[in-house]
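> forwarded from #structure-qc
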């Protein structure tokens, strides 16, 4: 995990030295002692015992103007309980950082003693005072501080708690029975901490953050914080952004991951079994938050995105509950399958994304769900996206599910429970799922195809929006030609989308592997409309066509229509009959044109003239 450095000469006398970036304070004992007085600045170090403790170093940094670096050179003769790690004794409250621009660089201990802990870092914190079991190991109130290379934190509530702004946590391997390895919050009624970055994109900046509950927790108030380049897990969740139900504010505009591969978090393995053997836990938990972005992460999989993460106990990938404007984009969300034990032995659980409660404005764009990182191979996942009621918090009222690949799940691709509305699906690739590609549940909760009804008056998920009825589908070297009807609510505008799949779903309805395009229609006063559309798409021989209908205003999208096989359309420009439109057909046209042969009357006006020549050229250029 680390590259060992040569051991430096032992020195217990020098406590602080001037550097180009400020002063360096060197901690050289694991004891939690303070024996220096006065203003407690760097100038007072060391105290009478000739040593500098972590608490003394923090106090000196807090009371001395300018930036300081706290370094470590603790001799192995001081190590206790563990033979490979220097355990800092914490015998009262947290180690506080209240001054700005303080760096705590635990990796300097590695440079001093060598890489004694290949599976982690060389300095950890051990809480000894029972009255402070819920407090953090390190508590940052300052701004622009950096914590680098912290190891495990034992018998504290949190590894690092941040209430300042623009701080960094990098290169930490922090685990333990914690509420969270890193916790960002303004506290009760405090100012929202902002601009803090957990992880980074440089070599060694990513953290490995695991805890008894959550790897990284961001609570209200806390805005505009970033979590990138980490491995995150816990017995409850890997990361959570959570607002207080009794607060008038919510955590706002926090980002998990980012648009580049180096910003990717691996968020996997979170969860645990309850007393009865029911698997519980979620990788990413967003509750009562606003504007959270979850982007570019691998969730539920191994780091290479090729397989489920081992010991994937938590059945949830991303849960959005009573949150506003959550954006979930460009993630790989797969491997979400947990099998119960004890009383739930053999039962299978899992969902890649769950939208729960009134969560308006949820955007789910361009994710891979149920696949590996290539999008081509399955990674076992129980179900895709679910929009569902949550007790006391209502049902989803709007979500935009667009451009995703949702494939290979054991159950449905997308499920809208009976009270969910405004779930718009557009341009997705939904295929090879064990249940329906899109399933809208009636109030009875019975899964399966919901038949169309007159005037679309029934109620259920997405209002049980009627699907189109396809009449014909034909394709050749040119456009795909599709006709059909939609019968739904009278005098209403709809968007129809069309899809191709190599096979029809066993139900006879859906799915939709390849998005072909769309058209806008409006029903008449009787709720009826017809469509006749040509789409510029290439269809493989033997394909099947399906369609969906979405209310233009609300976005309520139907289940997939019944599928129809694509008929191969004859190409009138293939005059040689060899299945290819090429120069030979052009020469054949000229011969027939010169002979005024009626077979080249492409305009159908009974004449062979220049208009037919232009029409042939148009077909020729299209390949048909």
């Amino acid at each position: 995990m680390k590259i060992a450095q040569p051991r430096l000469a032992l020195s217990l006398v020098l406590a602080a030295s001037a550097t180009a970036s400020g002063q360096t304070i060197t901690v050289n004992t694991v004891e939690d002692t303070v024996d220096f007085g006065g203003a407690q600045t760097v100038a007072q170090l060391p105290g009478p015992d000739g040593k500098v403790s972590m608490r003394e170093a923090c106090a000196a940094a807090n009371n001395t103007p300018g930036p300081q670096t706290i370094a470590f050179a603790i001799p192995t003769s001081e190590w206790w309980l563990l033979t490979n790690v220097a355990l800092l004794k914490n015998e009262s409250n947290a180690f506080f950082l209240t001054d700005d621009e303080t760096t705590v660089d635990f990796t300097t201990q590695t440079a001093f003693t060598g890489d004694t802990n290949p599976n982690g870092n060389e300095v950890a914190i051990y809480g000894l005072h029972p009255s402070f079991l819920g407090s953090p190991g390190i508590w940052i109130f300052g701004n622009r501080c950096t914590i680098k290379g912290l190891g495990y934190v034992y018998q504290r509530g949190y590894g690092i708690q941040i209430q300042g702004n623009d701080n960094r946590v990098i290169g930490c391997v922090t685990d333990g029975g914690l509420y969270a390895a890193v916790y960002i919050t303004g506290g009760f009624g405090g100012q929202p901490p902002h601009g803090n970055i957990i992880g980074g994109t440089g070599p060694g900046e990513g953290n490995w953050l695991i805890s008894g509950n959550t790897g990284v927790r961001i609570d209200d108030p806390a805005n505009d914080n970033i979590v990138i380049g980490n491995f995150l897990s816990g017995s409850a969740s890997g990361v959570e952004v959570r607002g207080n139900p009794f607060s008038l504010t919510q955590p706002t505009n926090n980002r998990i991951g980012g648009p580049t591969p180096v910003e990717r978090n691996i968020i996997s393995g979170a969860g645990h079994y309850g007393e009865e053997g029911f698997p519980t836990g979620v990788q990413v938990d967003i509750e009562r938050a606003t504007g959270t972005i979850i982007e570019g992460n691998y969730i539920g999989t191994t780091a290479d995105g090729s397989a489920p993460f081992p010991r994937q106990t938590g059945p949830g990938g991303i849960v959005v509950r009573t949150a506003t404007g959550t954006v979930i984009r460009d993630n790989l969300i797969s491997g979400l399958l947990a099998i119960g034990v004890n009383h739930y032995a053999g039962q299978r659980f899992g969902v890649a994304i769950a939208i729960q409660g009134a969560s308006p404005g949820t955007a789910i764009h361009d994710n891979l769900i149920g696949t590996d990182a290539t999008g081509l191979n399955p990674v076992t996942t129980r179900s895709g996206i679910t929009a569902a009621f949550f007790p006391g918090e209502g049902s989803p009222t709007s979500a935009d599910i667009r451009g995703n690949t949702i494939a290979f799940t054991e159950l449905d691709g997308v499920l809208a429970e009976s009270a969910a509305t405004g779930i718009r699906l557009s341009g997705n690739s939904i295929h090879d799922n064990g249940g329906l590609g899109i399933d809208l549940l009636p109030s009875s909760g019975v899964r399966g195809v919901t038949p169309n009804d007159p005037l679309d008056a029934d109620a259920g998920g997405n209002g049980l929006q009627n699907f189109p009825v396809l009449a014909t589908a034909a394709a050749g070297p040119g456009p795909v030609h599709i006709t059909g009807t939609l019968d739904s609510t009278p005098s209403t505008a709809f968007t129809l989308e069309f899809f191709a799949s190599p096979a029809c779903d066993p139900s006879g309805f859906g799915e939709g592997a390849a998005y072909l395009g769309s058209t806008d229609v409006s029903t008449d006063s009787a709720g009826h409309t017809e469509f006749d559309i040509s789409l510029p798409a290439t269809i493989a021989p033997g394909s099947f066509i399906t369609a969906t209908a979405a209310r233009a205003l609300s976005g309520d999208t139907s289940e997939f229509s019944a599928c129809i096989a694509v008929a191969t359309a004859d190409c009138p420009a293939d005059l040689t009959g060899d299945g290819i439109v090429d120069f030979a057909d052009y020469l054949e046209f000229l011969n027939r044109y010169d002979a005024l042969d009626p077979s080249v009357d492409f305009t159908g006006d009974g004449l062979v003239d220049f208009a037919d020549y232009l029409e042939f050229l148009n077909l020729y250029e299209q390949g048909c």
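QC bot note: Residues 453 and 466 are 7 Å apart (CA to CA). The radius of gyration is 31 Å.
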